[in-house]
Amino acid sequence: MKIEEKSIGELINIYIKGIDSIKGYHSAWPGIAGPQLARLTEFGKAEEGVLYIRARGSAASNLVMLRKRAIINAFNDAFPDDKVSRIKVEMIY
Questions:
Q1: 46 neighbors 26 (Cβ within 8 angstroms)
Q2: Burial class (CB in 10 A: 0-12, 13-18, 19+), 60
Q3: What are phi and psi of 70, to 5 degrees?
Q4: Structural domain contains residue 1
Q5: Residue 40, domain extent
Q6: Residue 3: inside a domain, yes or no?
Q7: pTM of the model
Q8: Which terminus of the chain has fewer CB atoms gathered within 10 Å of its CB, N or C?
Q9: Residue-wise pLDDT tens for the chain (93 aa)?
Q10: Would the CA dihedral through 51, 45, 61, 34 be positive or negative?
Q11: Domain of 65: which CATH number?
């Protein structure tokens, strides 16, 4: 098995690209969730087809679940390479 060697510059670029994709999710969240829901929630992560959302209380969690299909569609439109099909909500206080 051959080990791939990378320069420090290449590793930094890979790291920065990862940060940019996360920032892209966070900055796109108000457009995906809508301005009112975005004030009550935070983007968590998108991983293995699941969109993780943090909601401020049970009312916000319920709103996310009511708008689940619209949120999934908006996320998939905004990030076609990172398709999600489910939402998991974590409540934060």
A1: no
A2: buried
A3: -65, -40
A4: no
A5: 8-92
A6: no
A7: 0.75
A8: N
A9: 667 777 777 766 666 556 556 668 888 999 999 999 999 999 999 999 999 999 999 999 999 999 999 999 999 999 998 899 999 999 987
A10: negative
A11: 3.30.300.180
